[in-house]
UniProtKB/TrEMBL annotation:
Cofactor(s) listed in the protein's UniProt record: pyridoxal 5'-phosphate
Protein name as annotated: Aminotransferase
Family: Belongs to the class-I pyridoxal-phosphate-dependent aminotransferase family.
Native source species: Shimia marina
Gene: aruH
Residue ranges of every copy of the Aminotransferase class I/classII large domain listed in the record: 33-381
Length: 395
């Protein structure tokens, strides 16, 4: 007997790019004090007021099967949130509640990609994107971007060869891993490509509450895009509810109808008490979201000050999200080599740029997810380490 090719080929037959992360976790298990600047996990936990709402709901009996598409109350709350923030008319019929954003990404690609079709995504990318596409039987095709343009895609980057046989394009703004926000001109160029080539646009907007410069614009709000855009949202980053696994897809009503059929045969919905907690959390409005985002706003300023005082490590403009992308090419090392060197020498764990595709070769991603003073210490040590390596390269 053999396993299916689809399941064995999720990572493309190679590494998933997380070797440095796993190495750091082994060191921690062995008792080494490692400063982890790797994954996007808040250093604060879900607010106790949200947990209280969850507890009240669970103890009140909402522990059985919930409605598969999501509770009416949560679907309406998400629809209202999106309508108010984007100006796009949205009702509960445009919303499917999912077990987190990752489940939503899988469902969105299953809805828009037939077996063997191509699915485009922007490089650098969140690490699960190509595996998600392979798992639905489609072919992942990365669209390269460039550090010199802050890794923002241009229409000319989406070549005719890449588009051939494609059915969807996945974008992520604010962006993980780069921290870049796609401005209106960038999104309009992407929208034009989607309309001209008849592509579905899948827009991953899970960091929409973490904006440090400029403004977040959902491509669903651009003319002619609401009918071809599927938006991925989540409570994980906005409300520090990563473990609750609560997200959504916003899409045309017909798409949601089919996605409800998919959910019926896969997830069978999300626990009701978690949905009730999400309704409560959303009802707290901007103050709670700003409170969750505040540590990353502070640490981005700390990082900018440290990096401005030296010239070895470059900073990709960090406009949003909980990460900064650093250019370490002056050391002569790849991102993976630098990350391993930093971990081995100073017990500081970062993610190599190569973990997120080929475009970020020679970069590392730093998650701003430890306390301020520890973060400052780690980042200054990273800079000092890079300067030593660069001086050795020059000599």
């Amino acid at each position: 007997m053999e396993l299916s090719q689809r399941i064995t080929n999720i990572t493309g037959g190679g590494s998933d790019g997380w070797d440095v992360f796993y190495k750091a976790r082994r060191m921690i298990a062995e008792g080494t004090d490692v400063i982890e600047l790797t994954i996007g996990e808040h250093d604060i936990r879900t607010d106790p007021i949200i947990l209280s709402a969850m507890d009240i709901s669970a103890r009140g009996g909402h522990t059985g099967y919930a409605m598969v598409p999501g509770t009416q109350e949560l679907r309406e709350a998400v629809a209202t949130r999106l309508a108010e923030r984007t100006g796009v008319p949205t009702t509960y019929e445009n919303i499917l509640i999912t077990p987190g954003g990752q489940s939503a990404l899988f469902a969105a690609h299953l809805a828009t990609c037939s077996p063997g079709t191509r699915a485009l995504f922007i490089d650098p990318y969140y690490a699960t994107y190509p595996g998600t596409i392979r798992s639905v039987g489609a072919e992942p095709v990365a669209i390269a971007t460039h550090a010199e343009n802050a890794f923002k895609p241009r229409a000319e980057d989406i070549t005719s060869e890449a588009i051939k046989g494609a059915s969807s394009l996945l974008v992520n703004t604010p962006n993980n891993p780069t921290g870049t926000i796609y401005e209106r001109d960038t999104l309009q160029a992407i929208a034009q490509v989607c309309q001209e080539q008849d592509l579905w646009l899948i827009s991953d907007e899970v960091y929409d509450t973490q904006v440090w410069e400029g403004a977040h614009l959902s491509p669903r709000a651009l003319p002619g895009m609401a009918e071809r855009t599927l938006v991925i949202g989540s409570m994980s980053k906005s409300h520090a509810m990563t473990g609750s696994r609560i997200g959504w897809i916003a899409a045309p009503k017909e798409v949601i109808t089919h996605l409800i059929n998919l959910a019926t045969h896969t997830t069978y919905g999300v626990p009701g008490y978690i949905q009730d907690a999400a309704v409560f959390a959303l009802a707290q409005g901007n103050p709670l979201e700003e409170e969750v985002a505040a540590p990353f706003r502070r640490r981005r300023k700390l990082a900018s000050d440290i990096l401005a005082a030296q010239s070895t490590v470059g900073l990709i403009p960090a406009q949003g999200a909980m990460y900064i992308m650093l250019d370490v090419r002056a050391t002569g090392l790849s991102g993976e080599e630098f990350a391993n060197s930093l971990l081995d020498t100073h017990h500081i764990a970062t993610m190599p740029g190569e973990s997120f595709g080929t475009s970020a070769h020679g970069h590392v991603r730093v998650a701003m997810t430890v306390a301020d003073e520890r973060f400052k210490q780690a980042l200054q040590t990273l800079v000092d380490h890079a300067e030593v390596l660069a001086s050795h390269k020059a000599s």
